[in-house]
Amino acid sequence: MDQEFLRSFVGYNSCLTRRHWNVVKQIVRYLQGQEAPTVVPNNNAACVDQLKDGYIKGDKTKHILPKFLFTHDLQKSGDVIVQKVRSSDNQADLFTKALPTKTFKKLVHNTGMRRLNELK
Question: In terms of domain of life, where is this protein from (predicted)?
Fold first, then answer.
């Protein structure tokens, strides 16, 4: 495993590609000691359905090369699982939106952040 892990860095350059994505996944899995697929939470049901079907509807995506739209390929290979998550449980909202205090505190707790006085 270690040789394969180190070999993945050969040819690493500044152009972001699928190879970079694979290296990041290998690093995270190596550090976590897991071989499970990466779960990508999304609070948009239509988006989750489109990604599961491999279909992305929209006029703006027709000019993007297919090699950059590889989420469906990652799902087929089992590397990524896109799951529906309720908006109130979406941890990305913690960093991108102004939230009600109750939701904010719940999401902070779910990320594992604690105040020092709570640890005693």
Answer: Eukaryota
